[in-house]
Amino acid sequence: MIGNLNHVAIVVPDLAAAAAIYKKTLGAEVSEPQDLPDHGVTTVFVNLPNTKIELLHPLGEGSPIQKFLLNNPSGGMHHVCYEVEDIFAARDKLVEEGARILGSPEPKTGAHGNPVLFLHPKDFAGTLVEIEQV
Predict the structure, then answer these.
(1) Percent helix, strand, coil in the chain (nearest 5)?
(2) Which ranges of 21-132 would DSSP assign to H, the alpha helix?
(3) What residues are labeled active site?
(4) Which pLDDT value is given to residue 87?
(5) Domain span at 80
(6) Contact assessment for residue 63 and residue 40, using Cβ atoms and an 8 Å cutoff
(7) So what's the pLDDT on residue 62?
(8) Per-residue pLDDT reduced to its tens digit, 118-132
């Protein structure tokens, strides 16, 4: 069921500064910022040869990552995203195995325009997991 690692997401207090570190200091290709109002974040992707790093910053007052940033003022790793071929089959199998979906069990559209779901960190060794249909 699980496919490639799509990305590792890092919450940052200053999106422009974090993007500059990856671009200027590490020489990585960095995307333009993209607002995702449905998820309450602004995101930037750092493209690597084998995966991506997603830099996340709160968008709006109801952002679900605002509390994370308040608890971790300098930022930190937020989640890992794995690819799946069929998000509905993956969701059903995960729920059957006892995993909990965060929020609605219906996928939302993610930053890549693909359906995504988030899985409860307590069910995955303390790690928030995103699955994305590719």
Answers:
(1) 20, 35, 40
(2) 66-71, 87-96
(3) 130
(4) 98
(5) 5-133
(6) yes
(7) 86
(8) 999 999 999 999 999
